[in-house]
Write a structure and sequence with these properties.
disordered C terminus, 363 residues, alpha/beta
Length: 363
């Protein structure tokens, strides 16, 4: 009888663990298992030290503003968070407005497809994804438009993940991934039929520098669309709560400093672009983009327990627990920013590179 009790208890625990990890967890749906969580290109034993190094940047805020320090800063961040993002969120590292009757994945895909639709490119066109992550948007856009997409990311681990996903999706001939800095891109002038960036240029210390590079590689007459992270007209630098929320978003997302919505078109024009359209895609009638963050609180605690256990067993690096907690805190700041209306991750700007250099501002 005692043996039977022990056997049933063990079976129940094993079944519960499987349900906890695989059924409730997002790993099977997203392609990354909890037991595979890592620190990206960082050796397992160095993850915790690199997490501390990441936070050290914020004790020296002026260092983050220096262009030469940004690659290491952002690269460290994405080594730390990529596996957790992919496991808990998906292969598209961005937000989208929630759509009644549509799943988060469907809403995300529609948000991505809208970007390439705005570019008005034809099948076979060569377009650039500036800041491609593990390539979720790239694959959706390639499949939807028939365009050939070249993605660039500073993080080598993301390059390898994106290439793996591209091959699994049967899009490796249509999607190319390059490891590089979008402030100094390894592409020739006037070589792309269109460019898009989805919540990526916020990592640049100066927007003018990344916009200048995009302008350089874009063919004359072609379009560029970007979804920007910005503070809105409701933000006040005199409001202590507003400042706390924005600084919390910056610290938890490797941002050298969030820009005001007023800066985006001004910078685009300064580097030579013609601004065709500008709109905050988060405003009504769009439904809240932060709903998914609020709905994920229970999943966070479930996942945090799992990550803690895996780290205790030595399966996951110890620093992963700290990273996971940091992302939860950041999710709260993002939610507060969205609910108060002082922050948006989808300030859309659509620009055209003039046919001639006459559009370039001489200032």
């Amino acid at each position: 009888m005692e043996f039977f009790t022990i056997f049933c208890t063990a079976a129940l625990l094993a079944g519960g663990l499987y349900w906890f990890v695989c059924v409730l967890g997002s790993a099977e749906r997203k392609g990354k298992y909890a037991v595979q969580l890592s620190g990206g290109s960082i050796a397992k034993e160095n993850v915790q030290d690199n997490y501390k190094q990441y936070w050290s940047f914020f004790r020296r805020p002026k260092e983050i503003e220096k262009v030469e320090n940004v690659p290491a800063f952002v690269d460290t961040f994405y080594n730390l968070v990529t596996d957790i993002y992919e496991w808990g969120w998906g292969q598209s590292f961005h937000f989208s407005p929630s759509i009644p009757g549509k799943s988060h994945r469907e809403a995300t895909r529609m948000h991505e497809e809208m970007a390439v639709d705005l570019l008005n490119v034809k099948p076979g066109a060569r377009i650039l994804d500036a800041g491609c992550g593990v390539g979720g948007p790239m694959r959706a856009i390639a499949a939807h438009s028939g365009a050939n997409v070249v993605g660039i990311t500073i993080n080598e681990y993301q390059v390898n993940r994106a290439r793996t996903h591209n091959k699994k999706a049967g899009l490796d001939k249509q999607c190319e991934v390059v490891c590089g800095n979008f402030l100094q891109m390894p592409f020739t002038d006037n070589s792309f039929d269109g460019v898009y960036s989805i919540e990526a240029t916020c990592h640049a210390p100066k927007l003018e520098e990344v916009y200048s590079e995009i302008y350089r590689v874009l063919k004359p007459g072609s379009l560029y669309v970007s979804y920007e992270w910005v503070t809105t007209e409701l933000y006040s630098g005199e409001d202590a709560e507003h400042v706390e929320v924005i600084q919390g978003i910056e610290r938890g997302d490797a941002l050298p400093g969030l820009r005001s919505y007023k800066d985006i078109a001004e910078v685009a024009k300064k580097v030579g672009f013609e601004v065709i359209k500008e709109k905050d895609l988060a405003k009504p009638p769009s439904n809240p983009w932060w709903t998914r963050l609020k709905m994920g609180r229970i999943a966070y605690w479930r996942n945090h327990i799992l990550v803690t256990v895996l780290a205790w067993l030595g399966i996951a690096p110890k620093g992963v627990v700290d990273v996971h907690e940091m992302l939860f805190v950041t999710a709260d700041y993002l939610t507060r920013g969205g609910e108060s209306g002082i922050f948006t991750p989808m300030h859309m700007i659509l620009c055209r590179k003039p046919e001639s250099k006459s559009g370039l501002n001489s200032d």
